[in-house]
Amino acid sequence: MRMYDIILKKRNGESLSKEEISYFVREYTEGSIPDYQASALLMAIYFQKMNKEETVYLTEAMMKSGEIINLSSINGIKVDKHSTGGVGDKTTIALGPIVAACGVPVAKMSGRGLGHTGGTIDKLEAIPGFSVEMSQATFINNVNRIKLAVAGQTGNLVPADKNLYALRDVTATVDNISLIASSIMSKKLASGADAILLDVKTGDGAFMKEIDESFLLAKEMVDIGNNMNKDTIAVVTDMNQPLGYAIGNSLEVKEAIRLLKGEGPEDLKALCHFLGAYMLLLANKVNTESEGIQMVQQVIESGKAFEMLIKFIEQQGGDTAYVEDLSSLPQAEEILILKSEKKGYIHKIQADTVGLSALILGAGRDTKDSDIDLSVGIVLNKKVGDYVETDDILAYIHCNDIKKGEVSINQLREAYTIEENPLNVRPLIFGVVDKNGIRKLY
């Protein structure tokens, strides 16, 4: 088999066989295929697309390029949840304890963030002592003991994706639904869960900007999961403004903990209720969406979800005193204020601009080796649809460097659009995609 022939075949718009795709993934991962040939194939795929069979073949080959986690010794149906990423997305920190408190095992493997804020692991490490470093045996035992554990991804999980994504990033071939879907699903499938819930973000702060494109990506990933015998459901949700009010690691942890105490912003609460319900459906704990939402509400109101968080933090070495007293978590030295320069209704808070403003403060990583400042970030005071007067506070900027804070606040000002007329706010949840197809809710 020659790489030249595979490139030519895809360039001419033909479908690649399972053997051809497996050959490419295996040989490129092992270093036998040079970057220039891999780039040529990626560009051919970008323009000629892949059909559903090719996408499944690519996902499977990538999944098998490294270690596949075996979680069969964990009791019950393991449901994994993945978000395609957004600004202020601290959902997992709240959702893990909620679902575990409902009796569903949550065995979560997460990575570190690269972008405007840290990933789930970075955020949790704002709690002193908390660690994700553990053996696979300890990870499994922890889930069997309390139904919840979060560990760092093993270095040998889907190495093909690490290599191919780096190449796609520098060859302008990231934005292809088959390549995106196979990248995400290969990691989820290799992580060992029995069922997968996908939170597919759409809007300014998401990878997929357009709603229709987001549904196409969701459908592609759901089809991959179900074709590989994993019950998979996707929910398409809004990321045209940040989720909740807090953007920044420690700030987001505080907001997630407040939700588990029955407080927290309404959009984050609604999203956790909805996603939690579908995780319970996938685990066969409930029969309907409404039953799932009711069960989620019950474990929050009874305090069981917060109790689960305490057990989880304690089990992974964290000091639970910091969870009980949120003021003891990392805090920035200075708080700057962004005020409205006009009165009217907030029509837009451009999520990606807010994310960049947080990155300027040090809340995220420019490169994988960048250090994160866990204490800095942004707390919104108003959301899209709110009415503001001139000089009303729009946001608080938490910083440890005044110069960075001033640059951030100037950037953040550009995120807001304020108009005289009220507007219809976009829905938080656009629809659900499962094995039966697409169900739009708007």
TrEMBL record:
Pyrimidine nucleoside phosphorylase C-terminal domain segment(s): 345-419
EC number(s) recorded for this UniProt protein: 2.4.2.2
Cellular component, GO annotation: cytosol
Cofactor(s) needed: K(+)
Listed InterPro entries: Glycosyl_Trfase_fam3, Glycosyl_Trfase_fam3_N_dom, Glycosyl_Trfase_fam3_N_dom_sf, Nuc_phospho_transferase, PYNP-like_C_sf, PYNP_C, Pyrmidine_PPas_bac/euk, Pyrmidine_PPase_CS
Keyword presence, Metal-binding: yes
Keyword Disulfide bond included in the entry's annotation: no
Gene3D superfamilies: Nucleoside phosphorylase/phosphoribosyltransferase catalytic domain (3.40.1030.10), Pyrimidine nucleoside phosphorylase-like, C-terminal domain (3.90.1170.30), Transferase, Pyrimidine Nucleoside Phosphorylase, Chain C (1.20.970.10)
GO biological process: pyrimidine nucleobase metabolic process; pyrimidine nucleoside metabolic process
Residues that span the membrane, as ranges: none
Keyword list, A-Z: Glycosyltransferase, Metal-binding, Transferase
Catalytic activity: thymidine + phosphate = 2-deoxy-alpha-D-ribose 1-phosphate + thymine; 2'-deoxyuridine + phosphate = 2-deoxy-alpha-D-ribose 1-phosphate + uracil; uridine + phosphate = alpha-D-ribose 1-phosphate + uracil
Family: Belongs to the thymidine/pyrimidine-nucleoside phosphorylase family.
Quaternary structure and interacting proteins, as annotated: Homodimer.
Role noted for this protein: Catalyzes phosphorolysis of the pyrimidine nucleosides uridine, thymidine and 2'-deoxyuridine with the formation of the corresponding pyrimidine base and ribose-1-phosphate.
Protein name: Pyrimidine-nucleoside phosphorylase
Organism: Natronincola peptidivorans
Lineage, uppermost ranks: Bacteria, Bacillati, Bacillota, Clostridia, Peptostreptococcales
